Amino acid sequence: MSFLELAHKRRSIRKYADRAVEREKLDECLDAARLAPSACNGQPWKFAALTDAAAKDAFCKEAFTGAYAVTAFAAKAPVIVAFIQEKTNITCRIGEIVQDKDYRSIDLGLACENFALAAADLGLGTCIIGWFSEKKAGKALKLPDSKKVVLLVSLGYPAEDPAPRPRKDRSETVSYNAY
């Protein structure tokens, strides 16, 4: 399958089959994430894969409470992966200050997309989740205060084949040589 076919195939999955994800497939997705590009090769990430049902359920009860309950569907996925922001190298840190850009969050987004595309290529479904209790998620993972969970990804075999979401036409999203 070509890359564009893969990009078209990937969907946000919110219903998962009651089927475990093979460790080899999970590891392949995690490898894709860790191989993502990052500013100054800082690789400011750690990925915490919740595969044990009890640990995952305890985490989800914390992360998806209150106003965040709308994303509780993710608790039914066999795997939840937390994308954790780590420190980066000094060159990248200086660049963040000078450019007023959060390169670490951008880097984690790149890693997350690599993970999601690898999963789609393996026949797995994902949903990238930014709406969760960051504080409670960090506490559930026993993170030190200097670390934070930036994104979560639910992973499993899809129990649905959702229709493609509408995408804006290229003419609405692309310009050449000026805005």
Secondary structure elements and pairings:
Blueprint: H1 3-9, H2 23-34, E1 45-50, H3 53-63, E2 79-85, H4 90-99, H5 103-121, E3 125-129, H6 134-140, E4 148-156, H7 170-173
Antiparallel strand pairs: 1-2, 2-4, 3-4
Helix pairs in contact: 2-5, 3-6
Which key phrases capture this entry?
179 residues, alpha+beta, NADH Oxidase, 7 helices
How would you describe the overall organization of this protein?
It is a single chain. 39% of the residues lie in helices and 15% in strands. It is of the alpha+beta class and 179 residues long. The protein has a single domain, classed as NADH Oxidase, CATH 3.40.109.10. It has a four-stranded antiparallel β-sheet, sandwiched between helices. The longest helix has 19 residues, at 103-121. The mean pLDDT is 94.
* Strand line-up across the major sheet: 1-2-4-3
**What would the average pLDDT be, to the nearest integer?**
94
Care to count the β-strands?
4
Number of discrete domains: 1
Coarse shape: globular
Task: Work out the helicity level.
Answer: 25-40%
Number of helices: 7
Task: List low-confidence stretches.
Answer: none
Radius of gyration: 17 Å
Distance between the termini: 33 Å
CATH topology (fold) name:
NADH Oxidase
Quick one: CATH superfamily?
NADH Oxidase
Task: Report the β-strand fraction as a percent range.
Answer: 15-25%
CATH class: Alpha Beta
Largest sheet entry: 4 strands, antiparallel
Q: So, CATH architecture? A: 3-Layer(aba) Sandwich
Given helix and strand content, the structural type is alpha+beta
Query: What letter string, H or E per element, gives the SSE order?
Result: HHEHEHHEHEH
